[in-house]
Structures are given as structure tokens and as C-alpha cells.
Amino acid sequence: SSATTSSEAGMDSLIGHLDGADCQFMLISPESGEFRMQIKCKEWSRVPWFDAVHHNTFSLHGAGYSNRYEAQRGRSLHGIESDDYIVSEILTGHSLMADWGSEKRGAVRKYWLAQDLVRHLADKHIEKVEFVDNNIQHLLITWSGGTKIYVNQGKDDWKITPPDTPGRTLPQYGYFADSRSNGIVSGISRDGSGKIIETGGREDEANGKSSIFVNARQTNSGNVLPLLPKLKSFKYLGSNKFSAEYIWKTFNSAARQPASLDYAVFIHCTEKQINWHHKPKEAFLSGGGYQKTPVPEWKGDVQTEPYESFIPDDLPAGRYYLVVGLYDAKGNGHRAKLLGLDTGADRYAVARLKVERGQDGKITSISAEPVEWEDEALSERLIPSDKPADFDFVRTSGAFRIESDNKAKTHKVIPLPNEPATEIALAVPAKSVKAVDADGKELRDVPFRQDGRYTVFTTQKDEFLYKIAW
Known about the structure:
9% helix; mainly beta; 5 helices; six-stranded antiparallel sheet; 470 residues
């Protein structure tokens, strides 16, 4: 058969029998947990060890199923659409993966950002892997065909100076793929103001065509509400009761994303997930509900009133996470995605509870230790920003793919699916700007103005593309 055949989580012993497999990257951690390798070490980093040998003989896809790669760290910052996951795909030259949760926007974003690059690398091989300045978090991978990829896995920013290019600053999980000799560019970096931005695509100079993606991240990929819950105070009240106060730290306007919808607070406790066979013990606790100040009006640090919660009689003694969240109690019951340690099902840990019982089975003590969210430094990725980014040939706060055809004297500006109405300034001349639907039908003439070398206009949500004639 000439059909492509692949395996789930295949290995090198299958080379010659199958064409490839999906990759499964695991997390090294001092703590045990689902999809973790418990190893205590000072420092570790991912390296393209398999692909350095077998990349062009056995094709690996992605970096693993999203929940496996996340390893209980949350989908928003470590799942299949995250910078963390994408940089592992780029580090190894793997084909990009999306899943049902990516929906249209997430899959299109990854495709526009890096598909030209990974397709180019598909039949190439790794020539050299370097730890720059002996830092195992700063990798430089050199591929056959001239592509060089810089990857930063470290917590601190890394300033790089590729030959004949302006310097770039790579945040943690940032990268820059220098494949200009092949007309390809792709990267996640900081602009001059420090904002994290994305660029990707290719240029065909011989035919006068190019396709470039820019993303200033005014909309986060996970529809996360920019609120971080924390435990402020905890008091054991005797028997099976405790009282707790919670602080909700807001970033920008909580109503900005995903919608101005009021939510109710819920409070649960749950065991830590040990492995995928394990069913954690959990309990829905009393307390919470709608607040006097609706969630869309929250600003700064919002303190909810003290809640009394009751531990059920049938919950065994042991250690649990105290988790909170927001849900649409008056609507369809869906839970909002928030900032914080997601223990699953959009429930965010604020403390570790210890429930103790006496020989008679009655609760003798309930104590709580606040949980610090280790990824708080990464939270800027989940906080929407209206601040425009300057990509030199484009200025915008939005996400667009620009397809140019110099021979036809046209530029097509295609917003990322579900992108809100946004102003875009493109460094091209223009005679007309028209909104066009997916079937190529012209919908309307779009007002525009010239600002120096830039053509400036404002898009509308759900319009498919804009055609600039010059």
C-alpha cells in the first residue's frame, strides 16, 4: 500500500514499518502527578534528541495530546495552542497539531504562524544543536538548507542577534526561525515596547508574491477572563466548618473577554489527579453565589465577602485542593476560564486543604496553605491588550494574514477568525479597499485614509477579507 501509516506514540523500532507517529513529550517534575516523570533535578530542558537522528526517516507530529503535555499545568499556558507547546514543535521541526478544542481560530493561527516553516523542514535534517553560552535553556538548531532556529525555554528574556538582522528579544517559550534564504520567517518575540507578538509566512520574490502573518495578540487564544483568584484568609470554625475570604485580582477590564456577563462564584475541594486511571475524591462546598458588584464591573483587587463552607460527612480525611471559579448560574451553567492553577474543569486552586478526623470519624481539624501559581509570570500571554504593535510594514493591535501579489497589484488582508473590529495600517499605496466574503463576492467599499506611507482602515468582525487595489 502507498497510503501513509502512522502510530500513536510510536518509537524508533517502527522505522521502516511506519511513516511516523504522534509525539508524546512528558514533563520532568519534583512532584508526582498525571503525565509527569518525578525526578528531582536542578534544571532540565527539552532537546531535539530524536529528531537529531531520525527526523527525515520517521515523521513525528506535534508534542503530544494536549492534556498529556500540560501535565496538570493548565491548557491556556501549556496546552496545544500555547507558546510552550508550539516552541516544542518548532524545536524539533515536527508537523503542527491541533485538536477539537482548538476550533477554527486556534488551528488557523498555528497554520499561519508556522506551517511554511515546518513544511520546509519536513525533509531536512538537523546539522547541529548548540547550547548558546552554555545555557541549556537557550538553543540554536541548525538545519540542512540553511535554516537556523533560536529557542528560549528559560524564564528570563534572551536577546539574540542573528547575522544581518535587527536584534530580537525572545521571552520564555519564544523563538525565531531564520530561514530568509528560503523566503521563510516565523517567530514569537517581543517588539520594541516589550509586547509579545507573532510573525510568520514566506516570500516568493521571483513571482512577486508573499504571505505574511502578524499577531499583536489583542485577543487571547483561550478566551480567558483576566481574573486571578487567591485565598486571603482562612479560619477553622470547629466541627466540619471553615470560613474563607478570597481576593480576585483583575487585569484590564474583566468584562473585556470573553463577554460582559455576570458570573456566580463556586467553591469546591478536590484531590490531586495522580494518573488518568485515578478518580479524585471531591466535594461541592457551600458559599459563593452572585456578588453585590457584578463581575463585569470588577476592577483592581476585588475581595468577596467571607464564606462559610461545610466539609461533607462522607469526605475522607486527607489532603485536597481548595478550588474556586465562576459560572453562569442563570444561563447555561458554563464555567469561565480564569488565570491560575487549573486543576481541571476550569476550577482554580487557591489553597491546599488538610482534613483530619479522629478515631470516631469526626473532623478534628481543617487547615489551609495558600497555593502560589508558578506561572503567574507568564500570565501576560492571557491578558488582552489593545496596544498596537509596529511590524514595520504593518501597524495594528489585531491578527491578520497579508497576501500580496505585486503583478496583480493587489493585497489581501485576512483577519484571524473571530477577530474583533480593528484598525490596521499597511505600508502600501491604495486606490480602493473592498470587503470580500469567502466566495469572492464584494460586500462593500471600505473607507480608508493615507497616513504617510500607510493605508489605514478599520475592519469589521466576521468579514472574511479585504482586498486592496493599487
